[in-house]
Amino acid sequence: MKSMKTLQGIIPALLTPFKEDGTLDAALLEKQVAYLADAGVDGFFINGTTGEGLYLSASEKRTSFTSCSAFPRGGNSSASPAFSHQRR
């Protein structure tokens, strides 16, 4: 049986930022994640925990994950992204 890691601590649901043309704003997402990582959060729920996941393409979800996985730069060195609302 596969062991699952238990999530614990402060893990905020991120709003996915979009540009005016409707595309993912990866730079703004990285800024948001850097701010939260510096504040000491323990992880991030990304890609749709606030409802926008249905409107993201697979490519945008990968970009979002890549943008978030580069952090934290400071703050909590163990913070990491966690997906939700994903079908396998």
Automatic annotation (TrEMBL):
Q: What is this protein called?
A: Dihydrodipicolinate synthase
**GO CC annotations, alphabetized:** cytosol
Q: Does the keyword Lyase apply?
A: yes
Molecular-function GO terms, alphabetical:
N-acetylneuraminate lyase activity
**Keyword Lyase appears in the UniProt entry:** yes
A single GO BP term for this record reads: N-acetylneuraminate catabolic process
Q: Which UniProt keywords apply?
A: Lyase
Pfam families assigned to the protein according to its UniProt record, in alphabetical order: DHDPS (PF00701)
